[in-house]
Amino acid sequence: MRSVYILLLVGAIFLSTLTFTVRAQASTLIVGTTDSIESAIDPAQAWDFFGWEIIQNTGATLIDIRPGSQAGPEDIIPCLATNWTVSPNGLTYTFTLRHGILYQDGVTEFNATHVKYSFERAMFGINSSDGPQYGLDYAGIIGSIDVVSKYEVRFNLLIPFSPFLQLMSCQASSIVNPAYAPYNTIINYTAGNARASSPMDLGPYRLTEWVRTAGKDDRIVLTANPRYFNASAGVPKTNRIIYEFYSDSTALRLAIEGGDIDIAFRQLAADDITALQANSNLKVWQGTGAAIQYMIFQEEAIPGLTRLNDSRLRRAIAAAINRTKIAQTVFINQVQPLYSMIPIGMTGHTEAFKVLGDANYTYTQSLLAQLGFNSTNKLQIEMWYESSGHYPSSGDQAALLKAQLEGSGVISVTLKSADWPSYRLNRNNGIMQVFFYGWYPDYVDPDNYAFLYWASWLNHHFIEYGEHYPQMLTAYNGARNITSAAGRISFYAQLESYAVQDCPLVPIYQGSAWAVSKKDVQGVVLDISQAWRNWL
């Protein structure tokens, strides 16, 4: 995965995190957002930021990340599990579970069989091709799960996967209630029935209202879970969270300025952030950002368009991009240029894509000349962007990129857009020739970024046509099969060097985390996990 606003990084990824202490025993907080749930809030299917945000607040995992931390090994804390042990070879993890945790019915007690069921359902029962367990290769990491006893469960791994505990803390590892999560069925939105729309009820909140109109979210209400394991400690701090949805960043800004909402969260434009910093009635918080945005090339044929399965076409387009201008012009330096799919400050980050240059028109022209394109026979491309506020300033970014590419004199760009639900359908249907996606860490490790080059759910067909895909995959698997930092860095450097030659994806920028709230809202934590914790 994922009303605070998180834009996307200024400076290094490991900026000091800002932590504050929500109004004690507050009744209601109203969160405003332009974001929406992509498809569902079933952890076996959902793989979008906002869907994961709801899962984060209504579900629970075996372990968690300490709020405000850098999500390192020392920052793993208990959640549904109280403690755990790891075998010397790194292939066996055994978790001891909390006693007396009841599901919503007040009778059924959470136990080890529910852990086994939740993971096996996601990996084998659902196994959705665009779900997170498939995309993150849970089945390539976890060999089997044993119920040792009622309160003890053992994971037997296929490889000594270094970030396994981080993986266990991500929303895709949330435990479902078997009574509401059939083994072979994805739980989707059910109009008028919030309980039937969610397979979880062990988290700090329960989903009590979810209203959609024509596939778009109108209102979501979360209510404190009295059976939450930490309820006796006063968690959650706020009894009810109401999400109100806005059409664009301008409407969201007006809502926070007018006092209609307590928090504005995803997405405000960069100039809105700057303006709101001068508003004495509001707080604007900046924290750590691990979010990136990247360009994707569809390598399968699209009728009427040049097929982008030749790496020279992709490199030519990539070389025409000027990341610095995007950061300065669209985002007022609230993001920074990115030349690696692994974020700045994270193990394995390189500056590999700098070799292509920024607005390197000579290189663009030379590559396209080899393929018969020139100033009188320009490469015609369609560039798609998301139009409903899931990403910040997408339209402005797309307009600038169009100007940059056309500045080469040998490329002509037609811009097209779609709202977030339609964007996903277009991706699945393979009709977008060049398009953009953002990525927020599922778990804080380079492994969770490096695989994006060939992620099947992007449906860009790099696996079939990528010249260097086998070498990239070998390097990636090498990095996830060893634990030494030096060895992993070496493998990621190899992967990135091949990636530049093929350009299945092109990193654009890395952003910061932002929050805008009323003065009396506290408990905001913006850390590298990008998790939004309503319960604080």
Description:
The protein is of the alpha+beta class and 536 residues long. It has a domain at 290-511: Dipeptide-binding Protein, domain 3. The protein is built from 16 helices and 19 strands. The chain has helices spanning 49-58, 112-126, 132-135, 138-141, 164-169, 249-257, 270-276, 311-319, 323-330, 361-369, 394-406, 420-429, 447-450, 462-465, 469-480, 485-502, and strands at residues 18-19, 26-33, 63-65, 76-78, 81-86, 92-97, 142-149, 152-157, 205-213, 216-224, 238-245, 263-264, 282-297, 335-337, 379-386, 411-418, 434-439, 505-518, 525-526. Strands 2, 9, 10, 11, 12, 13, 14, 17 and 18 form a nine-stranded mixed β-sheet that branches. A four-stranded antiparallel β-sheet has the order 5-6-8-7. Strand 9 (205-213) and strand 10 form a beta hairpin. Helix 8 (311-319) packs antiparallel against helix 10. The radius of gyration is 23 Å and the shape is globular. The two termini are 18 Å apart. Mean pLDDT is 92; it is low at 1-25.
CATH fold-level label of the domain at 290-511: Dipeptide-binding Protein, domain 3
Low-confidence stretches: 1-25
The count of β-strands is: 19
Q: So, CATH architecture of the domain at 290-511? A: Roll
How helical, in percent, are the residues?
Answer: 25-40%
Based on Cα principal axes, name the global outline. globular
Strand percentage lies at 15-25%
Largest sheet: 9 strands, mixed
In CATH, what is the homologous superfamily of the domain at 290-511?
Dipeptide-binding Protein, Domain 3
Number of helices: 16
Cα-atom Rg, whole angstroms?
23 Å
